[in-house]
């Protein structure tokens, strides 16, 4: 995000750095603002920095799609693990039930 902002600034396009009047602030502040923006793309948090040109918009869309795929695979992995644990628990319960039935006879 920081790189795209700097490149588009140098090419004369409007960008998030100029839109928020950050041209004269330190590198660290701009970098951490970009990091903050990046983190808000993967969480429900919000931020006032938004894409101002086509390059920033493409990167924002790419980040959102990447986050969607990553989050979906994470949820899928958790669901698969929970299903596997439930199946193991059911098998164990069935074995105990069969053992109790055998011991009663």
From TrEMBL:
UniProt key word Transmembrane helix: yes
Transmembrane region positions? 58-80
Domain of life, per lineage: Eukaryota
Q: Which Gene3D superfamilies match?
A: 1.10.287.70
Residue ranges that the Swiss-Prot or TrEMBL entry lists as coiled coil: none
The reply on keyword Transmembrane helix is: yes
The entry's keywords: Membrane, Transmembrane, Transmembrane helix
Name under which the protein is recorded: Ion transport domain-containing protein
Organism, as annotated: Alexandrium andersonii
Record lineage: Eukaryota, Sar, Alveolata, Dinophyceae, Gonyaulacales
